[in-house]
Amino acid sequence: MSRFEAVLLDFANTVVQFDRPQIEAIHVELAEFLSRTFAPIDAKTLGAAMDRVCVEAPLSQDKRELTPVQQMQRVLQEAYARPFRTTDETVIAANREYQELFVRSIEVDDLTLRALARVRARVPVGLVSNYPCGVSLRRSLSALGIADRFHPVVISGEVGYVKPHPRLFEVALELLAVPAERVLFVGDSWASDMVGSHRAGMATCHHLGLAAVQDHAERYARYRPDFEIQHLEELDRILTVGWLPGTKVKRERR
């Protein structure tokens, strides 16, 4: 029988792709909005500021999540290096536009939908995501028609911390009511997802198929996830394997 009684998934680059193509498209559209509405800005300058600000929370010592408005305020302050006084209205309008662009950028393919259905037929499936705006992430799930496929849904913007902070994993496990050692966590980020869930006592599965190709050799020398997959459909194999605690499993290669 399978060791796992539940699966927790990351969202971006695990269930859906949200990598450089989507991010850079948002930079272009948001720069056009800001240039029309407030002051000229080019997409490259705006994108560089967003890239810096959006990693502040995961790289910080306390892992405190910024609110969406705090994040946007920092983006505008960095992007408009020349004197530019942002108002509350400016920041709120820019954040509203950004959240709309985020929701519209998210798509899910049929193969993933079928894979999710197969996993859910076996075990409960939850979602644990780093994103500052819980409302927008939940809107994206509803827009995709998959909001009812995950329980629990734990979002950093609602918890107040980002992965790998233990609180997100603790909340998810409490809501699942399944022992950590019986839960498989699937995500694309080595530091946030793999290390974070491993420290929480879960088995780990590194999703490598949707994010940009990275060299994980140095990271894997410190901690190697239990499984690696290219697509969620491969979870069927993992859940079928009779992997009990203490049993060595040969990792399949593709």
Q: Helix amount, in percent?
A: 40-55%
CATH fold-type name of the largest domain: Rossmann fold
**H/E element string?**
EHHHHHHEHEHHEHEHEH
The coarse silhouette is elongated
Q: Tell me what the CATH architecture of the largest domain is.
A: 3-Layer(aba) Sandwich
Structure overview:
With 254 residues, the chain is an alpha/beta fold. The protein has 2 domains: 6-17 and 108-240, 3-Layer(aba) Sandwich (Rossmann fold); 20-105. The protein is built from 12 helices and 6 strands. It has helices spanning 20-37, 43-54, 56-59, 68-79, 88-105, 110-122, 134-144, 156-159, 166-176, 190-199, 217-222, 235-240, and strands at residues 6-9, 125-129, 153-155, 183-187, 203-207, 227-229. The chain has a 6-stranded parallel beta sheet with strand order 3-2-1-4-5-6. It is elongated. The two termini are 24 Å apart. Residues 244-254 have low confidence and may be disordered.
Quick structural summary:
The protein is α/β, with parallel strands linked by helices. Helices cover 49% and strands 10% of the residues. Helix 10 links the parallel strand 4 and strand 5.
Which helices and strands occur, and which strands form pairs?
Elements: E1 6-9, H1 20-37, H2 43-54, H3 56-59, H4 68-79, H5 88-105, H6 110-122, E2 125-129, H7 134-144, E3 153-155, H8 156-159, H9 166-176, E4 183-187, H10 190-199, E5 203-207, H11 217-222, E6 227-229, H12 235-240
Parallel strand pairs: 1-2, 1-4, 2-3, 4-5, 5-6
Helix pairs in contact: 1-2, 1-5, 2-4, 4-5, 5-7
